[in-house]
Design goal:
The complex is a heterodimer of chains A (about 325) and B (about 600). Chain A has about 325 residues and is mostly helical. Chain A has helices at about 1-30, 35-40, 45-55, 60-75, 90-125, 130-140, 145-160, 175-215, 215-225, 230-255, 260-265, 270-280, 285-310. Chain A starts with a helix and ends in a 7-residue tail after the last helix. Chain B is globular, with a radius of gyration of 25 Å. The mean pLDDT of chain B is about 85. Classes of the chains: A mainly alpha (about 325), B alpha+beta (about 600).
Chain lengths: ~325, ~600
């Protein structure tokens, strides 16, 4: 097992390097530059724009810039944002708590909805409950998040005036009031995102459980006289959850990538919106840092998913 | 004729025969903006007084929180590094300039004690120096006193090329010297009629010497106060998250009495203009939303909710269509749209004239801009002093067709006009933006009816406005026949605006397409007018020179003005904001208050 892990980690290093090289080259070749707003500003003479580009090394050849960036990254210096002249690491860390809170809650909500519904639907396949659950799931993941987001805003914020739709990261006060306010403003984005994820997960859980529930040993367990609840939880779920757990492990990096559309609609200052605004502003250091972190997380969680799969299912041997 | 009339009036005001107010009204009647009218008076020798402020509250504080929604959040808080108005707006919460512009375009004193004029010795008769007297007793947020040393330091900081300050153009051709602790003098190399550029307005706010002295030059980006400003402004800094949030609290030692009204200020960033309008006008979650570039009918629908409304400020921003005087489809020495070529279709003035008759400005205003736009025949739409009354606009497909027929452009078999084997086909480009795409459609339709084939192209704004040398789709490269966008007027004076189009500034491959004359217009008469205007100290003569320059641009159809655009903001019904078309939205923040009823 440990050999397997070590080998996978060693393989991860060149793949991460390759990813960073591709990212860097693509960004360097993309049109636009961070100082585009200066062009139409009559107060800014062109030499200043040129001087800034030289200062940030934008005029050096690509390989030189890549080497600079790589050596800095390895030493832990993630660079300076061109746009806000702030340390990139600090910029990302500012956004992590919000991302974890909102997007993380959405994933949890998705799990809480998907697993019970998926299991129950699989227990009574093609019944009314199953039909309804399936239809809702299809509708859920066919409707894009910007549509459901806008719908929620129109209903809950504009018509009913129950919930605020602009997310603020600083709410004053302590205790219950503070908590209440945090929950109030997070309800809509969490619901929008959570329901979307839940829809696809429900289908997946349902099919995973269906696969297991018709196997012989389940019939044996029932014949033994065990209650339905025990059969489901102790026997069926343990096997059905193996693919589901790996799916969840693979989705966790997505939590960090954030849900870009939802963050735009509700103005949530998460990592996804940082990525989008940096791409639009051609702020290369930030884009590199965020996508590199994301790539690293994907590689890591892939490894965790594989290990978990091997540990949960003794029939799988990791070589 | 204009000259003598103006001069008589100025003398009238000086001798007390004419009321200042009446003078300004007459100037507005003649088409001059108030800032220019006031400047006319100043150099004409009349002492300037500030207009009384509309501020009502009688004590400091107690107004609760002020929530501002900027859908492009500020990314840094040092005015000298601001790449756009959003950063200047954020910095302006904490930093202040010597003076700013109010909605009428008059000067509003902030850190200065009085407006410089010929009377009080602030302005020199030869136009080569300005002396500012500073307000006594002003303190920085950390308690240190504000003195002339800070003003001089800002000049040194910005004019040092190693600092790479984006405000360098304002400061590098002047000299600033300290006369005493509360007086500074600015010296210009040449007579400078518009002396109110340096240290005026949000872009030129003043940073403290004692915190930035160690960070001049190459170390400028390392200053910790770049992200936590200490200024003299009405609010003290609390926190800043780039692109997301700026927060401030009331400054109890603020130098203006009974101000500010609000206890805290919060500027939130992100999202888009429509949801910003919704958050202010429909749900009332925010008090003020900036730059609401949304179609007017959408705004009208939102306003039915009754919590907020759209407010407008008049400035000089003009949305225009520029014509390319060179050929974008011929390559000379590896350069397209080269100054060595002439545009095959536009070198015929009849074609240009016909095109100017095919832009239905009334429809564009009605359908797209609504209350946020005004039809205009001028490229220069403000200050009113400089707006020409000699131009008119017209929309007539029949007239355009007739002009083209008379010039020999006859419709071919496919309905497109042609002459000598050249077809009237145009490529029309602009940036991606709802109202702009709709305008393109309107113009294309009219052109089709007149027999001109128009191909539409739209480019992502971050690429269209970039100075990227390698990209063919920038507005500067102008690889199209006509392009449409807006150059905002950032101060109530046409100098920078009109200086762009002299022959020396033609955009070429040689100057890496950084030259600002993107239509590549070459006209010695225009050059002479602009050169004369820049050194003309007599404001009356100066105004008429710029009016003549504008007329030339319109006559030669270098630009087809589409709309004189107003600034559109969203405000809660109970808020009393002060927004000027000549200043940043937060420039007059100290005068904002809330009234109980909407």
């Amino acid at each position: 097992m440990s050999q397997y892990i070590l080998r996978r980690l060693l393989i991860a290093v060149p793949s991460l390097l390759g990813i960073s090289l591709v990212l860097f080259v693509v960004l360097a070749l993309a049109p636009g530059d961070p100082f585009s707003e200066l062009a139409t500003n009559p107060n800014v003479p062109p030499e200043v724009g040129a001087a800034l580009r030289a200062k940030f090394g934008l005029d050096d050849p690509i390989y030189l810039r890549y080497v600079h960036w790589l050596s800095a990254m390895v030493q832990g210096d993630w660079g300076f944002s061109f746009v806000s002249r702030m340390n990139v690491g600090a910029l990302i860390l500012q956004r992590v708590p919000v991302t974890l809170y909102v997007i993380g809650s959405a994933q949890l909500l998705a799990l809480v909805i998907a697993i019970p519904i998926g299991v129950y639907a699989a227990m009574r396949p093609y019944s009314l409950f199953d039909q309804v659950a399936n239809t809702l799931a299809f509708i859920g993941f066919s409707l894009p998040t910007f549509f459901t987001g806008l719908l929620f805003i129109l209903v809950f914020s504009v018509k009913l005036d129950w919930l605020p739709f602009v997310y603020t990261t600083d709410i004053k006060g302590t205790g219950i009031a503070w908590l209440g306010e945090q929950i109030r403003q997070a309800i809509m984005p969490v619901m929008v995102l959570g329901l979307f994820q839940a829809a696809s997960m429900t289908r997946f859980v349902r099919s995973a459980v269906l696969d297991v529930i018709r196997l012989d040993y389940v019939t044996t367990a029932r014949a033994k006289g065990l209650g339905q609840a025990t059969v489901i939880v102790k026997h069926v779920l343990r096997n059905a959850m193996i693919p589901v757990v790996t799916l969840i492990a693979l989705q966790i990096p997505a939590v960090f990538g954030g849900a870009i559309v939802t963050e735009q609609i509700f103005r949530i200052p998460g990592i996804g919106s940082l990525l989008i605004s940096s791409i639009l502003a051609n702020d290369t250091p930030v884009v590199m840092a965020v996508t590199f972190v994301f790539a690293g997380l994907v590689v890591l969680f892939n490894l965790i998913a594989d290990v978990l799969y091997g540990w949960l299912d003794p029939r799988i041997s990791l070589r | 004729m204009l000259d003598t009339e103006l001069r008589t009036m100025i003398d009238g005001v000086k001798d007390g025969r004419m009321d200042r107010r009446a003078f300004v009204q007459r100037m507005i009647g003649l088409g001059l903006t108030a800032p220019m009218a006031t400047q006319l008076l100043a150099i004409g020798g009349v002492a300037m007084a500030e207009t009384p402020s509309p501020y009502k509250p009688t004590k400091r504080g107690g107004g609760g929180p002020l929530k501002l929604l900027w859908w492009q959040g500020p990314t840094l808080l040092n005015p000298h590094f601001a790449t756009g108005t959003k950063d200047q707006d954020g910095s302006r919460l904490f930093y202040e300039p010597l003076a700013c512009w109010d909605p009428d375009g008059n000067m509003k004193l902030v850190l200065a004690a009085e407006i410089p004029s010929l009377q009080n010795g602030g302005l020199s008769a030869d136009g080569k120096s300005v002396t500012w007297k500073l307000k006594p007793g002003v303190k920085w947020h950390d308690g240190k006193p504000f003195t002339a040393d800070d003003v001089v330091f800002n000049w040194e900081y910005a004019s040092d090329p190693a600092t790479s300050a984006l405000t360098i153009a304002t400061y590098r051709d002047i000299t600033v010297e300290k006369v005493d602790d509360l007086t500074v003098r600015i010296l210009f190399k040449n007579p400078t009629p518009f002396w109110a550029d340096a240290f005026v307005g949000a872009p030129n706010a003043i940073i403290p010497k004692h915190l930035f002295a160690d960070y001049k030059g190459a170390k400028s980006r390392e200053a910790p106060n770049n992200l936590s400003p200490i200024g003299t402004g009405p609010y003290k800094f609390i926190e800043f998250k780039p692109g997301d949030l700026v927060r401030g609290e009331l400054n109890p030692d603020y130098h203006m009495p009974n101000r500010p009204y609000f206890d805290t200020v919060e500027m939130k960033g992100g999202g888009d203009a429509v949801s910003a309008a919704r958050a202010v006008i429909q749900t009332g979650e925010y008090d003020f939303g900036y730059n609401i570039q949304v179609e007017d009918d959408v705004l009208l629908r939102l306003e039915k909710g009754g919590k907020g409304k759209a407010i407008y400020a008049v400035g000089g921003d003009t949305e225009f269509i520029a014509l390319n005087f060179t050929d974008p489809n011929t390559e000379v020495d590896g350069e397209r749209s080269s100054i060595k070529t002439k545009h095959p279709l536009f070198s015929d003035p009849a074609v240009r004239k016909a095109l100017s008759l095919l832009v239905d400005r009334e429809a564009v205003k009605k359908v797209i801009y609504g209350r946020a736009g005004r039809t205009t025949a001028n490229f220069l739409n403000g200050p009113e002093k400089f707006v020409s009354k000699n131009t008119t606009w017209e929309f007539s497909i029949e007239k355009a067709s007739k002009i083209l027929d008379d010039a020999g452009w006859k419709p071919g078999a496919d309905g497109i006009r042609e002459k000598d084997g050249k077809k009237l086909k145009l490529l029309y480009q602009t940036s991606i933006n709802g109202p702009r795409q709709k305008t393109q459609a309107i113009v294309k339709q009219a052109c089709q009816k007149a027999g001109i084939d128009v191909e539409l192209k739209s480019v992502v704004a971050s690429v269209f406005f970039s100075s990227d040398v390698g990209n063919p789709d920038t507005y500067a490269k102008f690889y199209a026949d006509i392009e449409m966008f807006q150059i905002p007027m950032t101060q109530p004076d046409p100098t920078q605006h009109m200086r762009r189009f002299i022959s020396a500034n033609v955009t070429t491959k040689e100057n890496k397409w950084q030259g600002q004359n993107f239509p590549r217009y070459v006209n010695k008469e225009y050059d002479a007018l602009v050169a004369a205007a820049e050194s003309e100290v007599d404001p009356v003569k100066r105004a008429s020179l710029y009016i003549k320059a504008n007329d030339l641009l319109i006559q030669d159809t270098v630009f087809i003005p589409v709309q004189h655009r107003l600034k559109v903001e969203a405000a809660a019904n109970t808020l009393r904001p002060v927004v000027s078309g000549w200043a940043n939205e937060t420039d007059n923040l100290f005068d904002w208050y809330r009234e109980a009823t909407g």
